[in-house]
Amino acid sequence: MKAEYGKMMMWYFLISDALTFSGFLTAYGFMRFANEKTWPIAEDVFTHFPGISGEQPLLYVALMTFILIMSSVTMVLAVNAGHERKQGAVGWWMIATIVGGFIFLGSQAWEWYHFIVGDKGAIELADGRVLKVAEAESGEVLSLSQLVHGAAGHASNHHETFTMSEVAAAFAANEDVVLQSPGKGHEQLSRAESVAALRGADVVQGANMKRNEYGQKQFANFFFFITGFHGFHVFSGVILNIIVFYNALLGTYERRKSYLMVEKVGLYWHFVDLVWVFVFTFFYLV
Amino acid sequence: MADAHSPSGTRWIWNVFWLLLIVTGVEVALGIIKPAVLLGEVAGTTILNLIFIGLTLVKAGYIVQYFMHLKYEDATFRTSIYLPVLILIPYLTFITLYEGVKVFGY
Question: Is the N end or the C end of chain A the one with fewer CB atoms within 10 Å?
Answer without folding.
Answer: N
